[in-house]
Amino acid sequence: MGSFWEYANPVKFTRMAETVLPWVSILATVTLVVGLVWGFFFTPDDYRQGSTVKIIYIHVPAALMAINVWFMMLVTSLVWLIRRHHVSALAAKAAAPVGAIMTVIALATGAIWGQPMWGTWWEWDPRLTSFLILFLFYLGYMALWEAIDNPDTAADLTAVLCIVGSVFAVLSRYAVNFWNQGLHQGASLSLDKEENVADVFSTPLYIAMAGFVLLFIALVFLRTRTEIYKRRASALLARERLG
Amino acid sequence: MIALVVRDLRLAMRAGGGFGLGLAFFLIVTVLVPFGVGPESTLLSKIAPGILWIGALLACLLSLDRIFALDWEDGSLDLLATSPLPMEGVVSIKALAHWVTTGLPLCLSAPLFGVLLHLPDQGHKWVVLSLLIGTPALSVIGTFGSALTVGLKRGGLLLSLLVLPLYVPTLIFGAEVARRGIEGLSTATPLLMLGGITFGTIALLPFASALVLRVNLR
Fold it and tell me: Which of A36, A64, A148, B147 might form a disulfide with A154, Cβ 3.0–4.6 angstroms?
């Protein structure tokens, strides 16, 4: 095992992905199944929320991923801009749709939970609003990738968009906080606070969160590998046309 | 630099539609809203500042793709890139010219359109003030979006998809200033935030715009 930057080499990256991918996939499946089944069938109903509380096992991990995927894209975009490693740019491209879907899942499960609990599908609450805005950022990012033909130009432009977008996403987060008071409950899952979700609920939740993270890692490996293959295929085609 | 400002302004005036089109669009939006929500004056006066802000934002958006598109087509953008003026300067000048041709007329005409929407009397100065402070940010952010999509054949829709989320904070604080001003609440906090966004974008975003423009010209 050499330096981390070795995997900027596409060949080394795909070889590594090949060996890691099956393990991560299996691990993701196991943790997801354990976490979700435990959460859905082996936890007691909340005394006020009834069984709707169980949507938390999808909602919270999806919301967690929605934000962290964008953060990962920010890091890989910076790596691309600074060190010009193609794999990094492709990883950002590969992660974006996953993040967008996670955002949609978080919004949709939140709406399904909010209907019986808050009595409304949608509320212009700061957290909900900023997630919607985050989703718009994902859409714009993916649309820009699709719109540009030259892969290097596309990587550069989307990387800059990701960085500028991150700043504005944070700004929007605080702006909507200022704009409307929240209905969404605060975080009840932390290491340093006294009052947390009870252990019976939080243990399967942690497992489900780990499952979502592993699922994301597996998907990004798979999709980045696919992007590398696609790039290689188009390079081969171009060479054939020349020759 | 001044020559470039003068050139852009003159082009916008003579090309027809640069100056007037944004204003006309703003007028259309303000006229259409009462048709949509009904002519009730209490409701209209309540939503007037928001409508004026959204109208200004959309009018701004409409004229964004002109910022670089024409210069890109006839090659003068390449000339500008090779001129001694740094790219950041070119981008800032372009944003300034865009603001003078769209943002400024919108600010000045907002009180007039406010009358159509039964904007309360004390609201006029707040709407104008918030637009005056906020629209430069719209122009600078829009220039960034325009620079991102300059090479694309049909960049218009993509441009709005990219730029509109970036407009969110400006819109929130701008409309909040106007709303609080009308209700007689303290406007200091949103006003400072709005000013902060405007100055922050003016200071930092030209670097990003220049970077993407250089990539697009590569």
Answer: A148
